[in-house]
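Thread: Newbie trying to understand structure tokens

Hi all, I'm a second-year student working on a class project, and my supervisor (Dr. K.) asked me to get a predicted structure for one chain before our next meeting. I've only ever worked with sequences, so writing a 3D structure as a token string is new to me. If someone could post the tokens and maybe explain what I'm looking at, I'd be very grateful. Here's the chain:
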Amino acid sequence: MTEIPLDRAVKRYEQAIATLETAGETLSAEQILEVLVARDAIQAVINDTTQDNPGSLIAKVNELDLRLRKQTDAINRVVTLADLREIINPPQKDWWWLLDPPQPLPWLDYYDWLWISLALAFLTASASLTVDIAQRLLSSGSNQMGILGIVGQSVLTALTAGGALTKPGRQGVEHFLTTLKIPKRFWDELICILALFVLLIPLTIQSLLPQIGDYYKRLGDIAYCKVQVPSAEQAKELAQCQVQLATVEDHYSRASKIDPNDSEAHYKLGFFYEDLQEFERAISEYQIAVKGRIEGESYKAYSRLARLYILHGTKQDYSKAISLLNRALSLELIKKDKETTYAIHTYFGWTRLAQGRPIEASNLLQDAIKLFPNKAAAHCLLAQALDQQNDRKGATTQWEQCLSYANQKDPDEDAWIGLAVQRLKARGGGG
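---
Reply by user tm_fold:
Sure, no problem. This is what the structure looks like when written as tokens:
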């Protein structure tokens, strides 16, 4: 049987489609063009009214057309049909030249400006958070972990920002997304999601800052040879511990910078400065501690700060001390701490004594003595209050108690020891 033109055209078309289907990643523009031209040839034969085309061949063409349509995505990954149409200029009815990728959904296309705006907002927030975290982690000194974390986050933010904001960066992102075979209609949305992911990193780090601060507080406690509830093994180590002053300051300072709202870190740093007799720095840290949320040992900052105000010795400082101590007495947490309650009553009495109100001072100091009869401070101050009231017998008894319990290592008690010896000597050692 003689082969008719449509038969030859169908065989060429079928062979071209088979090549396209099996090419996979090696599919080329030439192979795609061959399929489209072969389909042109079939259409030319069908349009030739002088030819008699069997129904079976027409059915075959329909079958091959279906196979061609299934290759739409593969074709558009390799070539842009719009560019080929500009060269070939086929009739609009030749659908095989119009196998463009699906158009974006109208609502996605309409909101492209929103995705880019959100991406810019996320990147701006990420950069701001990164700067803030860097300042916290590095402000009191650098460490390898902090530097690596900040550099990594900064690089990631810069790369994403470059992709969204600059032409070379966007071209790089587009090339990357093309390599991943992601349809172009989703690019703006994906850039927005990537920017959100970048923002989540500093947000996560920021949420972990309190735990990082707690870690440095523990290191500071160890260097200061202070552990709140030491285990048996830790107690043995603490007995041989040597305080590392520079390390203590570094760790407590780092904790207070990492989480500025951590009142306990400021309390510990204030106590450290007070221990070094750096009172102005201690006052500054205590003031921050009493303004923050109460956590850990931070409530003790009230009594410690009141003591330093008393030592300053001005009327304004006495008023500040009274205000602090009144606030402290209203805190439930302090009421549960017997030693801190003792300190508050003692310092309250001390302030009233300094204000020239010995009767009030005596009542407050007696309340303190009821809590801890064997502590020296309240006895030493009560002796002074009774002296001001000309109660020589009662004062002598309190001076004897003061001298009996006082510890020379305590700076306040050391001064009172000298005063007690002087007063008792003047009275012949008795009442």
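A couple of things are worth pointing out once you decode it. Residues 358 and 385 are 5 Å apart (CA to CA). The first helix runs from residue 5 to 23. Feel free to ask follow-ups in this thread.
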